[in-house]
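Re: your question about Putative head tail connector protein

S., sorry for the slow reply, the queue was backed up all week. Below is exactly what I fed in.
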Amino acid sequence: MADDPRVKIWEDRIIRSKKIRKAALKEAKQYIDFYEGNQWGSKKTTLSEKPVINLLYAHVKLQVPILYFQNPRWYCRPSGPMAGIEQVVQNAQLAEYLLNYYTKENMGITLKRQIRLAILDAFFSFGTIKVGYVADFEANPNFGKNNVLGEDEQGNPIFEVDTETGNIITDTVEDIVVNEQFYARRISPTVMLFDTEAENYFEDGRYVIQEIVKPTEDIKSSPLYENTEDLEPSYSIKPGIDEVSSKPDDYSELIDDLKRNTIYEIYDLEHDKLLVTADGHTKFLRDEPMPDGIDRLPFEFLRFNEVPDRIYPMSDFKPGKSLQEEINMGRGMIMTHAKRYGRKYGYDDSTFGGNAEEEMEKFKDPEDGGMFKLIDAGRPPTVIQDATLDPAVYANFSQSLVDFREVMGSTENDRGVVERRKTATEAGFLARASGVRKEDRKTLVEDFAGGVGNKLLQSMQANLTAEHAVEILGPAGKVWQGISKEQIAGQFTTGVEVGSSTQHLPEHERAELVQALQMIAQFPPELVMTKFNFDGLLEKLHMYFPLLEKADLINSPEQQQKMQQWLTQMKQQQGQGQRQGQK
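Result:
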């Protein structure tokens, strides 16, 4: 196959995108160094002490749990044109059940780790989650055979027949799915490339590219890629063993295992296509329409600090970096001054006479009750006072701490400390001002998580092959229901229930539960009995009051069943007694 001239166009775009990325990553690397505590670097200073009070690290560790403490609960709502609204609403409900159950049971802690890591990336630059689908296949044993629907009463096979032609339908599927998995994985900002002509948002550009390194043999053996016959490796990684210590045959296989290729997964948003190129290769390894289940991009991006007309966002650390350096410098000056040799003495020839050097050695590190020979007791060594450290250093150090917390948005409540007493009005103003800033950032994370859920659902709608069993809480309690691809079809809007990803403190939840029960008690009894699930409340009551479970104050299911039977018998006996009394 001849060389594809379009490859050159994409090579040029990749080179230009890499130049912009290089500058952005260089800046982000400074902030990563600060986060790790490497904050002095090559800074020239006369200070002997170089302490690090890593407030940037503390800032991140404080913010991440506030923003994302647990996997959220997603909701699905019908959107777009609807034909058969009842069916669409039912499909949306089943899609919501499947999405929440799958992310909880099949992804669980893995999803939480990936999203939290993407949030951490956003503090330095931007965060990225890639949503996708992988499956294991095996050969279909019924390929080419007639499709059998079942057997008749005599045990003869019933074949599937084409209603138009009357011909028996044969199985045309060569491979069948034996295991499938949907994933949401954090992608490093260091491997993402974007349109150099985009203004602010990656998704608004003409393309988004992911740079991937793969073993050459994996690329050549994968059915996903074509035009791999003349693919040469981009480089080889360094082996862990010496060539001398291995046999020639073994070493040749090792050499093949060390070969790597850098490929570029191009999501061409202009033409809605997926392209793959490789360094130094003149043909596309993939050139196909965008796969099913991908709405424009498989990526969801998180940015905290956009800058007008700049595609890369500003790091959260940038406003606090200079203040962090001031704080380190101030503490360094204080420590250096404190550790200097505190007491200095002056003497002249008449103090010790000819034995000055010998007597001064005793004087440098004297023991209790030490004796020194003086020529003139009236002229002992004179104490020379050190210059005191300028009070402005202490004042500037304290002010830098205040400035840092104001710029970074860290309040006393967030840090769990009280620096000074405040009036109720003042405390309320501070809490509201801080809350607006935190809530704004929470909404960014919730929108980000909502986008991840939306892409997961789209992938499920396109790729789900077998029914998935999902536990659903219905009117009769918990039931298991199988959900298939057809049952989640439709156009839906997916979002995150507000506050479902943030931390929940037991004491706060306990107080909220008590307040809710007090409010419910004022409702009409009919409304309470029809709208509220008290069985579910009692099942979860031990979560709010752990003592109930520890002290065995809650009956087991068997005990509850016996008590229910006993109460039923008591009611029956009371009813019989009342009827006999009426007679």
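The CA atoms of residues 113 and 186 lie 9 Å apart. Residues 85-124 form the longest helix (40 residues).

Happy to talk it through on Thursday.
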